[in-house]
Amino acid sequence: MTKSGFEWVVAPEDELMPNIIAYGKRALVAVQAAANYWGQSIQDAARNKAAWEDRTGNARGGLFFAVDGFGLGTITGTVSAEARSEMNDVGVESGSDNTLIVTLGHTVFYGRYLELSNGGRYAVIMSTIEENLPALSRLVQEIFRG
């Protein structure tokens, strides 16, 4: 009598599952790295693009990015010491094991005023994010192109 079908040489739970899990972890780290790279680029773009007069340098130097989620720890862009001293009510949205969040914000307490006053004429946060979203999309797509 002949056997039909196939027989596993190595059980899937011994090789396949650990490799899938390891790939998933590497993919999350790669996406976080792309988000970090993109976050730094939008921080730089916002600082260059800000149209307001920055008398002390704290507003421009206090624009920052942060990346949080996937259980990998928070990465925060560098801000000037003077701008950091202005941080009163700055919060970074936290991600989760399944969600990665990139934040672009102000450290200075008057950042809200810069974004919302004068009909939003001096707003830099949302416009910078929107202008640069295609670059983030390309970075993430490149990760999975193989």
Strand and helix map with partners:
Blueprint: H1 16-49, H2 58-61, E1 64-69, E2 75-76, H3 81-85, E3 100-105, H4 111-116, H5 125-143
Antiparallel strand pairs: 1-2, 1-3
What would you note in describing this structure?
The chain is mainly alpha-helical and 146 residues long. The protein has one domain (16-139). The protein is built from five helices and three strands, in the order ααββαβαα. It has a three-stranded antiparallel β-sheet with strand order 2-1-3, with helices on one face. α1 (16-49) runs antiparallel to α5 (125-143). It is elongated, with a radius of gyration of 22 Å. The model has no long low-confidence stretch (mean pLDDT 89).
Give the tags:
146 residues; mainly alpha; three-stranded antiparallel β-sheet; 3 strands; 47% helix
Instruction: Please tell me what the overall shape is.
Output: elongated
Largest sheet: 3 strands, antiparallel
- Name the poorly predicted regions: none
Which range best describes the helical content: under 10%, 10-25%, 25-40%, 40-55%, 55-70% or over 70%?
40-55%
Spatially, the strands of the biggest sheet line up as 2-1-3
Radius of gyration using CA atoms only: 22 Å
Which class of secondary structure composition applies to the elements?
A: mainly alpha
The overall strand count is 3
- Residue-averaged pLDDT: 89
